[in-house]
Design goal:
309 residues, alpha/beta, Rossmann fold, 8-stranded mixed β-sheet, two-stranded parallel sheet, globular, binds S-adenosylmethionine
């Protein structure tokens, strides 16, 4: 019965277009993101980036650059020559990124770095076709309509240009998301907006999005990381400070946010008592690919003149 009420509320919220925006959560998490998320999950982002060649002179687009964890590595790999155009929607995250990777005007044989505030899809729409060598999307394709974003990525890549995506899998932090679902099912009025995230089921899902957008797939793999939080209190702290619960602030009745967090803690305490441990797995996928290189014009077949008559 309560699940039906939750579904009804979700439908009403969808019809009224009350979609939760993760920006407030990322602004709030920006100071702590590099203490919580980056040291744990950032090494998986760096490993994913290492799977696409970035060479000096390249033009690299980074969508949703956050605090610049990957941006700094892209800059390092360009060795002082090339262009980095990064974008993020959260002013808080961008402020941290700009302190880490200061913008540079560039010039002949030097490095240009621009970090812009805005929506990643609109940002791509403003870039010329075939203007990028590499596009990087770390933990953020879920905030888009992925096939539509990838179609824009395909447009801005030059033929042979590469793309890398790392994203959280839909089954990540299962114990936590199940607990949240139960809390909202018990009292659907706690929910004031819908957290709309397109988390993929698996790497094959992302690979299908690539193919649909006209991109080839080179690497397709799954990964998992146990988050370093083993008590209910630690878990709540980790999800709040790492940005892992982005969209939560906007999705929950703000006057009752603490009440929801207390109920999460209580649920996790029950789980800990029952199972003797509280391991949250942050599962994820990595997919890399490319825009197919231009095919050389077909040579005229023997016996044909090649000229139209
Ligand atoms: C989990 S963080 C990832 C940050 C960074 N890529 C990294 O690897 O650490 C997700 C980022 O996506 C940004 N974001 C969410 N929706 C966005 C959108 N529509 N356009 C641009 N940035 C967005 C958030 O502000 C946040 O900085």
């Amino acid at each position: 019965m309560s699940r039906a009420r939750l579904a009804a509320r979700a439908l009403r919220l969808a019809l009224s277009r009350s979609h939760a925006d993760p920006t407030a959560d990322y602004n709030a998490a920006s100071e702590d993101y590099d203490t919580y998320f980056s040291p744990v999950m950032g090494r998986h982002s760096l490993a994913a980036l290492a799977e696409v060649p970035v060479t000096p002179g390249d033009t690299v687009i980074e969508l949703a650059c956050g605090t610049g964890h990957l941006t700094a590595e892209i800059v390092r790999r360009l060795e002082g020559r090339g262009t980095v155009l990064a974008v993020d929607k959260s002013p808080g995250m961008l402020a941290v990124a700009r302190a880490k990777v200061p913008p540079r005007p560039g010039g002949r044989d030097s490095l240009r770095v621009e970090l812009s505030e805005g929506d990643m899809e609109s940002f791509l729409q403003g870039l010329p076709r075939g203007s990028a060598d590499v596009v990087v999307v770390g933990w953020a394709i879920c905030y888009s309509k992925p096939p539509r974003l990838l179609a824009q990525i395909e447009r801005v890549l030059r033929p042979g240009g590469r793309v890398v995506v790392i994203e959280t899998r839909a089954d990540a932090h299962k114990a936590l998301t199940e607990r949240l679902e139960r809390i909202f099912a018990d009292d659907p009025t706690l929910l004031t907006g819908l957290v709309r995230v397109a988390l993929p089921k698996d790497a094959a899902t992302v690979a299908r999005w690539f193919t649909k957008a006209g991109l080839t797939v080179a690497v397709r793999r799954e990964g998992s990381q146990v988050i370093p939080a083993h008590t209910p209190e630690d878990v709540v702290e980790w999800i709040q400070r790492s940005g892992a619960a982005a969209g939560f602030k906007d999705a929950v009745d703000s006057a009752r946010e603490e009440q929801v967090l207390d109920r999460i803690r209580a649920g996790l305490a029950q789980l800990l008592a029952r199972e003797g441990r509280l391991d949250l797995h942050h599962t994820f996928v990595v997919v890399t690919g490319a825009k197919p290189a231009d095919r050389p014009a077909a040579a005229p077949r023997a016996g044909t003149s090649g000229a139209r008559t």
